[in-house]
Every structure is written in C-alpha cells, then in structure tokens.
# Entry
Amino acid sequence: METKNLLLRNTELSDCKCFYHWEKDPEIIEYLSIDKDIQYEDVVKDFVLASIDPEMLMFTILSKSENTPIGRIIISRIASKEKSLDITKLYIGKKNYQGKGHGIELMEAMLQYVFFDLNMERVTLDYYVNNRRAELLYNKLGFKSEGVLRNSTIKDGKYYDLKLMSMLRNEYFSLYKKV
# Structure
C-alpha cells in the first residue's frame, strides 16, 4: 500500500529489531498493552505466531521519502464469514515522524484497504480510555463508540479499560463517498 508520505508492506522478521526498540520506549507503549520488561525474544515469538495465524495481518509502516521503518500496524480477528476484523495495534515509533498527521493518513489507507480490498462489513478497534489522541483520531475518521470494555487488557500486572469503536461498510462509503 502506498499513501502520499507512507509505504506499507508486510512485516518481515528483520523488522522485529525496530519494534523491540520502539516497544521499550515508555512514551510509545504508554497506551499499548505491552509490558515494560518485554524482551526481543517476545517480539520475535509474537511475530512468528502472528505470521502463521490466518486471522492476522501485520504491516510495517515506512517513510516514503527515506524508505525506512517508522511504525507498525496489526490487524487481527479476521472473520471471513462475518466480514469483520479488528485493528489491533497501531503506532508510529520513530520520534521525528510522530505528530505529523501520519496516523490519519495511515488509517485512511487502512480503511480503504479493509473495505475495498478485503471487502469487510465491520471494522473495530479499541484504545485506552484516557488516550485522548486516539479518541480524537478515531472520531475524526468517523468511528462510532460502542462502549467501554472494563478490565479488558492487562499491562505490567494492572488491568485497564478500553473504549471500543467500530465503523460499518455503509458508514465508510457514506463518509468517504467512494464507489
């Protein structure tokens, strides 16, 4: 996939080095369910397990101008019969690319991909209830709130609530006027 500023490609094993580096950064993982004591082997194990899971897709986000990894996105719970999936993990890990609008550019491309290419009916995502940046982004994109998933994830031994949002196919086409 390609956008104005980004390239998205399937994640490769070598990308795990970048992911591990980013996922050790407290600012990156503040709102992700990643324990602070994560090890490189954990990142590799997760990659290997996800790569053989038919209900998951992993993409590495690259800067188009530098052709270098700047983040990642994982899609999970791909249900062919129900035509639904979940955007599970999304972040820009490279500091000088954060706060520059890449999140919305990436999500617009992902929505086009899941509704056009994968022909999904429903897309869900969730985020930590106190993550205001995520809330603003997903509202701006047109996601609808479905409620709070209480004690839905655990990080460093503590439970956190997640806000669940979704977008339906007809909502996407209504908002983005693509046929």
Summary: The CA atoms of residues 1 and 22 lie 22 Å apart.
